[in-house]
């Protein structure tokens, strides 16, 4: 009888472990490069509210991250810079923010770029995101009807912005949140045509527990405050 009781206790313990009884202490978030500053800040708040929990980020091109997840990369949360990219991973995501393009120029704006049409001037060197990534797709929309020949096509928006901060180009089309994050290193030139291509940012929890909690933080009033302060627009509707 004593042996049967011991077996029953052991089975209870094993069953508890198998159902997630041990709380997960690590969270891996895959997010668009343009979310680097805001999600890093939200990750710090998340960790502060949960002692012992570690949040690890993988920032990059949304298209590249989606491919990595598709190949089995261990992501708990995915936040993309476009619904089309998110669709490759999940159709259950929720839009949490919007973003639009702005022209980034070096401090002092030596090429005197005043609007989108100036990017077509032959002497102005321009960096764009590659067309297969969200910031590149948005750039293609706003540049319709305008002949702009970029000197480089980068794989994510941060790499595109770096071309300006290093003085390698006269201008780059990036998100206005990236211009704001790089304040002091670049200047921003707004243009009316940016309204043609406002990107929705969707997010999804790919696992439960901490992943659900992190998504809830991003969707919360606190999360919206961090995103709005960085220049993101609120989700439509």
Notes on the protein architecture:
This protein is an alpha/beta fold and 237 residues long. It is 37% helix and 22% strand. The protein is built from nine helices and ten strands. A five-stranded mixed β-sheet has the order 2-1-3-10-4. A five-stranded mixed β-sheet has the order 7-6-8-5-9. Strand 6 (126-129), helix 5 and strand 7 (152-154) form a beta-alpha-beta unit. The longest helix is centred in the first third of the chain and has 17 residues, at 2-18. The protein is elongated and about 60 Å long. It starts with a helix and ends in an 8-residue tail after the last helix. Residues 1-21 have low confidence and may be disordered. This is Molybdate transport system substrate-binding protein. InterPro entries: ModA, ModA/WtpA. It comes from Nonomuraea africana. Keywords: Metal-binding, Signal. Belongs to the bacterial solute-binding protein ModA family.
Q: How would you summarize what this structure contains?
A:
With 237 residues, the chain is of the alpha/beta class. The protein has helices at 2-18, 36-49, 62-70, 83-87, 134-142, 157-165, 176-181, 210-219, 221-229; strands at residues 26-32, 54-60, 77-79, 94-99, 101-106, 126-129, 152-154, 171-175, 186-189, 199-205.
Task: Provide the descriptors you would attach to this structure in a database record.
237 residues, alpha/beta, five-stranded mixed beta sheet, 9 helices, 10 strands, Molybdate transport system substrate-binding protein
